[in-house]
Amino acid sequence: MASSSLPSPADPSFDGMFGPYTITDHDRREVLGYRLALTAVAVGQLGLLLSWRQGGDALLWPWLLLMAAGLGLALRWIHIYLRPLHRALQLFWLAGCLGGLLLAQRVGLGSMGETLREQPLWILAVGPFFAALTGVGFKEFFCFRRPEAIGVTLLLPVALLGRLSGLLPVTTTATLLTLESLLLLVLCLRKFPMPAAADVGDKSVFLHLEAQRQGAAAATPAAMSTEAAVSTEAT
Asked: What angle do the packed helices 147-165 and 123-144 form, to 10 degrees?
């Protein structure tokens, strides 16, 4: 049975920078997963802020789990040409999640919101998570020039750094984060009618870069073997 990652005659084909490429069922599933996961982040953030406004700190953790899982999956399926940048965003996500776990271990799940309000330095622990989300927003703006992506990219750092530095009160920070999460939700909803090829990008670039990486990996052992042979002959 042919793999679903292989093209079929019914799959659309495109001309890329390094040759023609095809968007397969596998690509479409990844794009749908990315869009659903990013939507989960937006819903989780809105739910988190709504619970916080209603004073229910004890009920924040389910929304935090939804956000963490959603962003992790979104970063699994996002299409970014530069692998180091992709890995950096994933590392930011991991660092932010570990910071959140540390905060939960120190103060308890029910006191995380209160601690972040009263001790802004804890933002440094969870900040990398939001840095990763900001990176996703920047990618969306860079690729699609969507105005709501600008809001996500700018409002998140302004809100968190403003609170961390003491320049913004809690209420203003919460308002900015609410606006940012609404813009993120709008961004996500506008993505669903788009063809999968829009989120995949120029697949020929990915294939070209992967071929380069495989070529470099294959060349390294060969070069080491040659060097060892030369050293043996010299002795």
From this structure: 160
